[in-house]
Amino acid sequence: MSNKQLKNTTPYNPLPEDFFQQPTLKLAEALLGCLLIKETEEGIASGYIVETEAYMGPEDRAAHSFGNRRTKRTEIMFSEAGVAYTYAMHTHCLVNVVSGPMEKPEAILIRAVEPVDGIELMKKRRNIEVPRNLTSGPGKLTKALGITMGDYGRRFTEPPLLLAKGITPQEISRGKRIGIDNSCEAKDYPWRFWITYNPFVSRHRKKD
User: Fold this and answer.
1) What is the pLDDT at residue 3?
2) What's the distance, CA 115 to chain centroid?
3) Which residue windows are coiled coil (predicted)?
4) Which of 61, 101, 114, 156 can bridge 48 by disulfide, Cβ–Cβ 3.0-4.6 Å?
C-alpha cells in the first residue's frame, strides 16, 4: 500500500462503529487480523493485530478499572467503545481498545502486530533491523507505529489512528494473560487470544 496521507485520501476502509459493539471477549478475538494504522508526519506505519488480551472491568482483578476504579488514567475506559486507552508502563506506552457499554470500563490490550506498511520507518524508530522483533510486544508495537500517550481517547474510526479490515486468521489460540501473576484468580482466566503459529506473537508458552 502507498503512504498516502490518511487525512486527505485513504486506501483503507475503517471498521464501522458497530464492530466495536461486540461483547469484549468476542471483540478481543475479532480484532485478530485487523489492520492497526497510525499516521504521523514521518509517514504511515501499520500492522495486522496478531495478539490481544481482554480486561473485563470491575470484576477483573487484573483490570485497571477493577472495582470501578475511576481515575484520570482510567476515565476513558468508562466512555463508549471504539476509542483508544493508552497508558505508560515501565516507560513504554501501551494501547488498548475500549470495549463494553458506556460506564462499564472494559478494554482490550493490543499485545502484538505483524508489520505491514512503513517497515523501514519502524526499523528506524526501534533502531533494530530484524523484522520479527519490531512489533512482537505491546511496548514494541507502539514505538514502531508511532502510537503515543497523545492518542489517548482517539477514535479508531478516523485518522490519525485507525483500525481497518485486514486478514482472516486461519486458526486462533486462547490462553492465560501475561504479566499479571499478582491478580489472584484473574491470572488464570483464558482471556488472551492470538493467531496460532504467528511469529510476531509476543510469547509462545507450552502450557497455553
Assistant:
1) 39
2) 13
3) none
4) 114
